[in-house]
Amino acid sequence: SGIWAVIPAAGRGTRFGGDIPKQYLNVAGRPLIAHALDALLAHPRVVGAIVALSADDTRWPGWTHWNGKPVLRCDGGGERADSVLAALQALPPEVPASALVLVHDAARPNLHDTDLERLIAAADLAHDGAILAAPVRDTLKRASDSDRIAATEPREGLWRAFTPQAFRRGALTAALQQAQAAGIVVTDEAMAMERAGARPMLVEGREDNLKVTTSADLALAEYLLTQRVR
Ligand code: C5P
Fold first, then answer.
1. Rounded CA gap, 107 and 85, in Å?
2. Is the Cα dihedral 118, 121, 125, 130 positive or negative?
3. Helices of type H across 10-161
4. Which residue in 49, 47, 45 sits closest to 35, CA to CA?
5. Could you tell me if 24 and 36 are in contact, meaning their C-beta atoms sit under 8 angstroms apart?
6. Please, which pLDDT band fits residue 16 given cuts at 50, 70 and 90?
7. Interface confidence (ipTM) of the complex
8. DSSP character for 23?
9. How far, in Å, CA of 212 to CA of 200, rounded?
10. Comparing 5-14, 141-150, 156-165, which segment has the lowest mean pLDDT?
11. Which of 42, 101, 124, 207 has its Cβ near the most Cβ atoms within 10 Å?
């Protein structure tokens, strides 16, 4: 059945000192979130997207369709996971509990078709869902209070979690509700699933699927997206 994309975009903060929430920062001529929508809705199995927005968002362009597919909006919540849960609950009621949903950060504009294809293929087979991720390449240091090195941590078996993250709608909704009820702030959807006892798959993805967080990321995203041939 059809896959829905869920895009948490209710973050108000910008770490760039200005007042533009980062999902609306302009990269390669368009807001970051437009690049995210492009990448997700290009996939033939993705039938629509729902975007969680801050209630006081004045910048949402009001898109209702993208690439001929519906774009819905809903109000987000206080934390990222609250926004994702709100979006899942605002999906059309006919979306089955067994349908896959793809949760993707509005601030990740450089998702490639090949990565999305591999993620969906893995999630089709995985019982507990799948996420894009990459193994840690750098040596990891634990800092003491004073920014001195206290220890070197083994990096073996450690991965960086990216988005999209693909789960069954019903399972993800239940996992996020459990985490919310327990008062635990999860920083990605997989963390909620893990807490619920699931073992999602790691699908190795491109390192350039970056989340724009700093002004250096913004410059890198600009470079990557202007290089791309669509
Ligand atoms: O701030 P951070 O980089 O973790 O945000 C990741 C994504 O989650 C962004 O797309 C942001 O808009 C979204 N978010 C949200 N609701 C919140 C906080 C963040 O949808 N309350």
1. 18
2. positive
3. 32-41, 80-89, 113-125
4. 49
5. no
6. low
7. 0.92
8. G
9. 25
10. 5-14
11. 101
Give SS3 for 102: strand
Ordered domains of the chain (ranges, CATH): 3-227 (3.90.550.10)
Within 6 A (CB) of ligand 1 lie 8-11, 23, 52, 76-80, 83, 105-107, 211, 213
Confidence band for 14, pLDDT divided at 50, 70 and 90: low
From the CA of 8, give the closest atom in ligand 1: 20
What is the distance between the alpha carbons of residues 39 and 27, in angstroms, rounded to a whole number?
14
Q: Can you tell me the distance from the alpha carbon of 113 to that of 117, in angstroms, rounded to the nearest whole number?
A: 6
Backbone angles phi, psi at 173, to 5 degrees: -60, -45
How many angstroms separate the alpha carbon of residue 22 from the centre of ligand 1?
A: 9
Q: Sign of torsion, CA 112 159 97 175? A: negative
Residue 229, pLDDT score: 66
pTM for this structure? 0.96
